[in-house]
Amino acid sequence: MNIKSVSDFKENVLLAPLTTFKIGGPARYFAEVASESDLLSSFDVAKNMNLPVFVLGGGSNVLIADSGFSGLVVRNRTIGMEIIKEEQFGGQGVALRVFSGESLARLVSFALQNSFSGLEWAAGIPGTVGGAVRGNAGAFGRSASDLILEVEAYDMSVGKKIVLSSQDCDFRYRQSIFKRDPNLIILSVKINLEVGDKKTIQSKMIENVKIRAKSEHGIKNSAGCFFKNIEWSGVDKEKLKNILPEIETVENKYKLPAGFLIEKAGLSGKFEGNAKIHSGHCNYIINENSAKADDVKKLSDLCKKIVAEKYGIDLEPEVQLVGF
Ligand SMILES: Cc1cc2nc3c(=O)[nH]c(=O)nc-3n(C[C@H](O)[C@H](O)[C@H](O)COP(=O)(O)OP(=O)(O)OC[C@H]3O[C@@H](n4cnc5c(N)ncnc54)[C@H](O)[C@@H]3O)c2cc1C
To answer: Which end of the chain, N or C, is less packed with Cβ atoms under 10 Å?
Structure first.
């Protein structure tokens, strides 16, 4: 494709099938781009038309409104990865450059094929590399930011490419500069991995996928964990123990699990329309049968309200709400 004008965009494209929730209305304008030049031209066209832009990766961390998105949705399919530097870190490390539309799954299998260690935690996480960097995706105590050397991004507010060091990206738990400033679009990422033993890497990946399969058993049509887990530093444990003595059972976890609080608040299995709080893992809201975005939103608002009332903790969505 070669995007030059609005006539190169599709119109009124239903977004639900492009998300793991299988929820969401149409995009007023839509483009699926496979090259960086098309990605940037689509931004230019949208700017000239004063259209808001939303970049969609794998759609695995979004809840799109039933009314859809009244601007341009660009589905990022800019793929590719290359080894850019070997023999770093005393001969043990490699650096890769990966385009942001590349799927995390393909990156994980590339790492395995080449015996590169560092991405074992990511096995089984859906979505694109761009989405993972923006949300600082993670699992098993590791996250994307552990690997990032630098990020090449496009600043839509000034129409310029910029290169950010890992420090500039200001990564925190499920947080980054890209999440705070939606004008910054990730184009490619430079990451570092260690050269390791293929069998060890493979068995760790299999182990992680098995743990994941167990905890996600019976879950489909979701966007992963709906809320962020809570950092212990922000929790008054002694106070919480008085109201919720069972807190002791999760004290050894990296974070206070949001799903634990939702479960203890009595919301397991709760329905709103056709959206349901999964009864096995209460941080998953699932689309049971053509649920509306509004159903999911109401259910998540209920979780926030009850958990705040009962435990004084403010749940923060991890899922990006679009068009609300
Ligand atoms: C079954 C399941 C399990 C999951 N498990 C985990 C897990 O263990 N850990 C975890 O962290 N997450 C998990 N997730 C959530 C999700 O997979 C990750 O957050 C993923 O990294 C999102 O990537 P995506 O490409 O699908 O992003 P999308 O859902 O497409 O987009 C999410 C946000 O990122 C923005 N974005 C996408 N690409 C770019 C870009 N190039 N530049 C700037 N912004 C961009 C979008 O605009 C949007 O705001 C899970 C989801 C599911 C469905």
So the answer is: C
